Amino acid sequence: MSDAQPYPVIATRVDPRTDDFRASHAANLAAVAKLHAAQREATQGGGEKYNARHLAAGKLLPRERIELLLDRDSYFLELCALAGKDVPGHVPGSGLIGGIGRVSGVECLITASESTVKGGAVSEMTAWKSGRLSDIAEHNRLPSISMIESAGADLPNQSKIFVPGGRGFRDLTRRSAEKIPTVCLVFGSSTAGGAYIPGMSDYTVMVDKQAQVYLAGPPLVKMATGEDTDHEELGGAEMHARISGVADYLARDERDAIRLGREIVAHLGWAKGAHPAARAIEPPRYRADELLGIASPDVKVPFDAREVIARLVDGSRFSEFKPLYGRSLVCGWAHLHGFPIGILANNGILFSESAQKGAQFIELCNQSNVPLVFLQNITGFMVGKKYEQEGIIKHGAKLINAVSNSTVPAITIMIGASYGAGNYAMCGRAYAPRFLFTWPNHRIAVMGGKQLAGVLEIIQRDAATKRGEVVDEQKLAMGKLMIEAQLDKESDPYFATARLWDDGIIDPRDTRTVLAISLSAAYNAPVVGTTSWGVFRH
């Protein structure tokens, strides 16, 4: 193990006694309290009535199943926990629990049907969330464990589910072909399309007298063929274990199914695809709680990204790259829980110099197989005649080219604004970072509400002038207010996370831990950079 720490320590300039710090801390603390309340709501499943009914049937709640599956004292990094929140027709969490935790010493992607919500029926949002979780398992080469108890598709909304829902079965078989193990534990009904999940998983465990897997239940069989049958002989666990062969293991009860799941993972002999050089881990020299006072709840108020970095990385040590050039983008190397990382963090709007610097830095990290961490707080690229003539488009394209073609793992944390092409250049969702999380102060949109309303006002005034018409000032003012209100709503972090634009909103104080788990998960796949890029316009 190397104990050498050649990187200099970031000297903080934060004074927790100032009024600005205290005001930001109080506002962010309130935002975190709101987040925790929303997360608690999302853990309630179908509510007290349906949870009680589930327990009365002698079943474990889905989150209890996950808890028993995990190693003692294992973490569980829940993903997309608020997907579907406040989306009409959906519930927070979208009827599916998913996250990363350790099972028999192996990092796994774990999913569980929220069977207390419409019997675990799959909605449109469930299908989209399942697809995102599948991406995480595939890209990070994580063995996956599905804990199934589902009534199948939410039939009244089948038109929204049928096409995207088929992707889940494709993904299972593709991961199997890539030698990424898939394990399915069936605790209850797994009907119609849901029957293909145990059918296509590498290993399937069914609970005796409880699991039922069939393409069509007794009523539909009666309608289709005239045959009279019951649930057990049609799709019971014992039948599948003794006759059809769909079940590889027959469990006595739920706890036995979980034991068998752990046993299966234990015998995989799973090995990570890459290992960073061992290095002593240092905690940051500054308190994580200070992040609440550093980051402004108002994204229009800037803050120094180095102060954030100092509270995330090992020993608050940071080797900055080109510190005097392109100063609106901070780039440099650090370690986090022993993992080497290259950090790109916004310290203002992106100029040509900062874009070129970022592109070069991404090339260097790929050359040395170092994962990237993007700390995104960006309102976009600089605009204006001077900057267009200097080539802001081609220089911005270099950075986006580098982000697009980089092959080392990238993790994005949105710590403030995420507007316009700045979202793209700093590895937003469309650029497929391995993981993407946001802070509660985060705002995301093409541009700010006032800016968009102002642009539309200019366009409307110009159009009226060309037509020789008088502008209706009252109508124009009302339109501006409506646009601003719409943008404020749609740029809210809860609006974004509900629609799977990120993998979850996190307490800023947990950022170091979330990054560490994400990096550890990423190292299940080979960490190999590239020297192959698209055409750079010079």
Output the keywords.
538 residues; alpha/beta; 7-stranded mixed sheet; 17% strand
Quick summary of this structure?
The chain has 21 helices and 15 strands. It has helices at residues 19-42, 48-56, 62-69, 124-139, 158-165, 167-177, 196-200, 218-225, 231-235, 237-244, 254-266, 291-294, 305-310, 352-367, 385-389, 392-405, 421-425, 449-467, 473-490, 493-498, 511-522, and strands at residues 76-78, 96-103, 106-113, 144-150, 182-191, 203-207, 212-214, 249-251, 319-321, 329-336, 339-346, 372-378, 410-419, 435-438, 443-445. The model has no long low-confidence stretch (mean pLDDT 91).
Q: Strand fraction band? A: 15-25%
N-to-C span: 43 Å
Structural class from helices and strands?
alpha/beta
What share of residues is helical?
A: 40-55%
Task: Please work out how many helical segments DSSP would assign.
Answer: 21
What's the number of extended β-strand segments? 15
Mean pLDDT: 91
Low-confidence stretches: none
Radius of gyration: 26 Å
Shape type: globular
Largest sheet: 8 strands, mixed
